[in-house]
UniProtKB/TrEMBL annotation:
Protein name (record): Membrane protein
Cofactor requirement: Zn(2+)
One GO process term, biological-process aspect: proteolysis
Subcellular location: Cell envelope
Record keywords, A-Z: Hydrolase, Membrane, Metal-binding, Metalloprotease, Protease, Transmembrane, Transmembrane helix, Zinc
Statement: the UniProt record of this protein carries the keyword Membrane: yes
Chief location bin: other
Residue ranges of domain M23ase beta-sheet core in the record: 323-419
GO MF term list: metal ion binding; metalloendopeptidase activity
GO cellular component: cell envelope
The keyword Zinc appears for this protein: yes
Amino acid sequence: MPLTDHGRVRKQQFHDRLGILHHRHLHRKLKERFPAAFNTRWTRRHWLHASLFATLGALVATIVPGFSSQLEPASQLHATLPLQLPPLTVRAPVEGAGRSWDVVQIESGQTLGGVFDKMGVPAATMHRILDNPANREALTRLRPGVELGFELDEHGDLRGFRFDRSPTQRVELDLRGERVHEKVLERATTTRLAVTSAEIDHSLYAAGRKAGLSPAAIAVMTDDIFKYDIDFKDVQPGDRFSAVVEETWREGERIGTGRILAATFSTAGKTYTGFRFERNGKAEYFTADGRPLKKSFIRMPIQYARLSSKFGSRRHPVLGTMRMHKGVDYAASTGTPIMAAGDARVQFVGTQRGYGNVVILDHGKGHTTLYAHMSRFGKVKKGQAVSQGTVIGYVGATGLATGPHLHYEFRVNGVHRNPLSVTMPPPEPLKGADLAAFKAATAPTLARMESMEQLMFAHTDAAKKNKRG
């Protein structure tokens, strides 16, 4: 019999003998401790003590055999194998890695000079940075929330400076040495579509900002999309709007909103809808059936003005004679901007007798408009194409005028018409391939807006209903 088998037999005999002794010893102890327990029915106390002794016995049986393994020397085999390790590689430090930046976020009313002073950086160092015109343009128009990075050495001297020149460009300046070295890092951005809806509580602006729209996006909605259909001075609490907006994201953070691709506005029991679409290379807003929201002409080519004289026969305020007033007058302060009433080509820029400084626009199809008594002209010249809303001049009192105002005329095939009552020609709707492309592009956008409105306003309406109930 091999030595290993013999050892196992001896070990097993030892365990068996130890178990018999353990059993006899435990039995004797229990009988001495509880003599009545072996002749009568056990109580809960008997079972408790028996359980305790059984547990102690199990521990002894587990521990003691461990010593028995020391009776036989265990033979252990060791083997050593050669292991081929790859050669040690020393990596060069990555440029810019491990740099420590103290990041400062601009607060409202804070200036660049104040930030540098707070960081203990001399004004001379700031001027070194601003010597670059590109840096000066970005750093002198800081808005709250903008972040600036300062890299200071152990003596508190500025080694590096970091700022965002644009949403996609981060500039790092190395100020060590005589010259400022610049490194421009491109920061990838992505564009996502977001749908937002809100109900006006106090003001449209407050509701729009709460819904995540930028001031510029709110202005597009009021001044571009719905300006022809809605008088926003009459907007009431409870009116609603929705918008599909492009959002710009960078490194998991939303950094701004872009174009409004679609919007709806519900007021006075009626809902208006606008969709952005490019026609002939120019972006416009259209109704769901492809009709332009933008009218061919705006009735009033000047804002914040008062109608001071109507169209028709009147006594001339300067000459004192009865004569036909072939336009309407709007009283306004000198220098108030005057806008083109519609898309046009500039027909005339100059001076005409009693009209003073005049601009005449040709809108095509026999329609022309005249703007008189200007204090000065806008940046327009004869033959230039202008879009509706372009500033063509400023209110004045040149020519025969008793005070600063705009004299505005509307002509159809050379015949003067009342600008306040004339039927304006409708804009050209989308047709053919343009209409098909528009329908295909706007269908998913409309579905997304409707889903958002159902989700949000259904909850709002239910809450109002419960409140009334």
